[in-house]
Amino acid sequence: MSRTTARIATIALLLGGLATPVLAQAPAAQPAAPSARQPATAEVRAAYERTDALSRQIFWTDQAEINPMDPVAGVKAAQALRELGRFDQAAEMAGKVLVVQPTNVEAMLEAGRAHIARGQAFYGIASLEGARNARPEDWRAWSLLGTAYEQVRRPDDARAAWAQALVLSPDNPDVLSNMAISAMTRGDAAGAEPLLRRAVAQPGASLKVRLNLAMVLGLTGNMAEAEQMLRRDLPPEAADRNLSWLRERAGGTGVDQARTWGSLQGG
User: Fold this and answer.
1) 129 neighbors 107 (Cβ within 8 angstroms)
2) For residue 27, how many C-alpha atoms fall within 13 Å in the half-sphere facing its CB?
3) In the chain, beta strands by DSSP E
4) In DSSP terms, which residues pair with 37 in a beta bridge?
């Protein structure tokens, strides 16, 4: 839905090799054979999932290099790249996964997300439609397709995709938020606010959804409620930065505002 909307340490796990046996008559020991890198254990993978995006990107990229057929590693690397704002690289990584794993639905979804994030949704539509066809019951493909269609100016297809996403997952806060941000990019802040209030009211509403509501409130002049939400959800420095951004842009068109908000949210 936006152009803008992430290596601390690499991991090289070695399988301990055995040194070549030394024969009695040999003048010196032979060098040990090099060990082969092995995929990380489930425990190590779980631990890295709790780290920051940069650490995850390096770890999962390494895991994907060890085993290009790993159904998880390349997708996780692409996700971390996207979180770091490296959208072109995220799209490239997801594409690499699909070259060797063309039926990997998670890679299809991640490719779509990356292309949407870099403002080139057209190039992600085929992957998202593939994910939809493979798993028609998965609301995520429909929701992302709605955003992609909207970005390429296919509003009727976008509305139909979002409607199906809500059939599959009623009142899903992520779907409602996508619809609201789309409205914002069209300059329809009044239409975005009720969608986001509905989204925030859901038990599964994420921090991102709440921050999107704060954005809309601030841009439409309700700065007091926006500040209340931001100070509840963000550290003081991040809240100050977001509030400054909102005050500078209040009353603007909404298009560039929606596209730049994502770079600020988490602070």
Assistant:
1) no
2) 0
3) none
4) 14
Backbone angles phi, psi at 37, to 5 degrees: -70, 140
Kindly report the pTM of this predicted structure. Answer: 0.75
How far apart CA 235 and CA 241 sit, in angstroms, is 10
| Alpha-carbon span 229 to 120, nearest angstrom | 32
Alpha-carbon distances, residue 87 vs 55, 67, 119 (angstroms): 17, 23, 9
Q: Which residue has the tokens 């609301």?
A: 139
Per-residue pLDDT of the chain (267 residues; tens, 9 = 90+): 433 333 323 222 222 222 333 333 434 444 444 446 889 999 999 999 999 999 999 999 999 999 999 999 999 999 999 999 999 999 999 999 999 999 999 999 999 999 999 999 999 999 999 999 999 999 999 999 999 999 999 999 999 999 999 999 999 999 999 999 888 888 888 899 999 999 999 998 999 999 999 999 998 889 999 999 999 999 999 999 999 999 888 755 444 444 434 433 333
Handedness of CA 112, 208, 178, 246 (dihedral sign): negative
Q: Which two tokens stand for residue 237?
A: 């420095």
| Helices 155-168, 139-151: crossing angle, 10 deg rounding | 160
- What residues does 14 pair with on adjacent strands? 37
